[in-house]
Amino acid sequence: MSALDLLSAFAATFTQEQRLLTLQLGDGGRWGETLLPLAVHGDEAVSDSYRYRVECLSPDTGLELKSLLGVPVRLGIAGADGTEQVRCGVVSAAEAVGSDGGFSKYALTVEPPFALLRLRKTSRVFQDLSVPDIVRQVFAEHAAANPVFAAVQSLDFAFAGELPPRSYCLQYRESDYDFVVRLLHEEGLAWRFEQGEGATERGSEASRGNTPQVTLVAFDDPYSPPPAGVERVRFHRRDATEEEDGLTRWDSTRQIVSGSVALASFDYQPVATGHSGDTSAVDQGTDGARLQSSLQDYDVPARTTLATPTSSPTTPGCASRRTMRKPSASTAVGAYVG
């Protein structure tokens, strides 16, 4: 028996069944327990894409990194109450990062397929289509030409009513990701991701053959997303052992942002110009308010013209949304039991 066979036999005792992290690549058949998740670091937010870096151990020292790229991923994170948070996506980057105790160490970057639309840049014109119709067309193009995108990524709009069509909408030297995000923001729509999977029971045989899926959901009601799974989160000092999940560190920052917004646009149908403006409603303190008093964000969003003047980029609602920058941010550090 070779050294690799001995190491593989030893590694066979380390399965994902009793671990806080589970990792499924593809349908779970090809990779099996080849990669054992060790740690995960990630960032996610409303109206932004998420990215997770998953550190893994493997008895195989010669995994071909390119064979991991584009593989659908299901990442499970166990909670203290027995539930599991699921994050799905695709492998956008793979690294070989040395060894740990005789095992080879790898790192996978997991993102939703939508995030990879940053890599496709183009210029084109859309006419007489609403923002949902334009976004659906962009997604349909990628689904038709990209089997991984079609299998993993889907789209949903969760809001009442209909948005007006745009008589002329230009995507100019812009990635599909930036274009879609810009259109959603111009209409005052937030967006989030819903994680889906074929089976809810972790590690069940029914999960075999199911591809992890993620849905981008655009919405306009801040109360429409489902509530958090927990009503409260403990904030306490770090202990050696924990009986429930909690936060052990909270950092906050504040920064100066633009104090006002002024918008101007040109409509070729009929020939007219529109103007709008708004001042920041964020309390930045006495000196902070003085500092931002002359910091105006002036823009002429001329790349789009809407079919109805009541929904042009210079309406007061658009200006108000642009004043809601991110003047503050918080970072939390916590611990899972185990």
TrEMBL record:
Q: Which organism is it from?
A: Pseudogulbenkiania subflava DSM 22618
Q: What is this protein called?
A: Rhs element Vgr protein
Cite the residue spans of the region called Disordered.
304-338
Compositional bias, Low complexity, is annotated for 304-316
